[in-house]
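Before relying on records like the one below, remember that each one covers exactly one chain. Contacts with other chains, cofactors or solvent are not represented anywhere in the record.
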Amino acid sequence: MKLTILGSGTFVPISGRNNPGYLLDIEGNTILIDCGSGTLRQLSKADRSFWEINKVFLSHFHIDHTADLIPLLFTRKYSANPENRKDISELAIHAHLDFGKILESLENIYTQWIRHDERPYKFNSFELGYNKFKDFSVFVLNAKHNPESLLFRFEDKKGKRFVYTGDTGYCQELVEISNNTDLLLCECSLRDIDEIETHLTPGKISRLLEEIAVKKVILTHIYPENDDDSLLTRIGSFKEKEILVGTDFLTVEI
């Protein structure tokens, strides 16, 4: 597995941190996990192509995690076919069941600009628990954020595990899904003094890390107020746990 961070920030438009978006290469698949505004341009800057993407996974419905989905479908329809390929695969869009209603509403507006018979897409809903794909699996639990918010744990054929928290507060589901993981991509939105139930802070992450076994942690979804040189210090050090502050275009082998 290989993870590429396309956006490590939030909806706040600042230099150096784009809206959330992540590229996961796993067993021959290229999955776009969330796609906030600017994700397509970040793909280009990372020297990656939207044609590589065969699946889109959405953690929840907030605009900073979904805004570039329609631009992606628009781009797939109208971009020149690379090398006149005949094998452009169907784009699978996976999210909470209720996203089907949102996509249907968007299609009522944009259908003529996003539908292409030779470049199709299809919506698929996640089930809680194990979701089996041909070459990998995704374990899904509810996050503590919005009713539709999901936590993802990917596992490849070698048994390597990668967890993406999306947006979430501290909860037992987060502890369960994060334990015994090779890489945890963990939101770190707010300072402890700005604490709310539906996001994580350095203090909450410290509590989480005391309860789980994990090899490497990368912090993401960082608001500007929380983004300074003291961030790692505020979380603390943990034996045998590597903790990094994520940055746009950081690429990690798992």
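The first helix runs from residue 39 to 45.
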